[in-house]
Design brief:
It is a single chain. The protein is mainly alpha-helical. It has one domain. The protein contains five helices and no strands. The radius of gyration is 15 Å and the shape is flat.
Amino acid sequence: MAGALGLFLWELNRGARIETVHTIAVNAIVLAEMFYLVNNRHILAPTPLISGLTGNRYVLLAIAACMLLQITYTHLPAMQAIFDSTD
């Protein structure tokens, strides 16, 4: 959350439109959640990146679905109109 807030404030201070700043913050939060999903696959043991991604195909499917939805949210004009997001 601190990273998303930092990006939000940084872009806002640079003069970006509020819609663009919101889109950046949402994308940062979703990306962080995808990393969190991979990192928390094992409760007591650390998860190396390669085994974390290849150990369960449902994790890969969930990440692929999230990426597809984020690209849709960011770039599809109909979604931009609904959520007031920008490229």
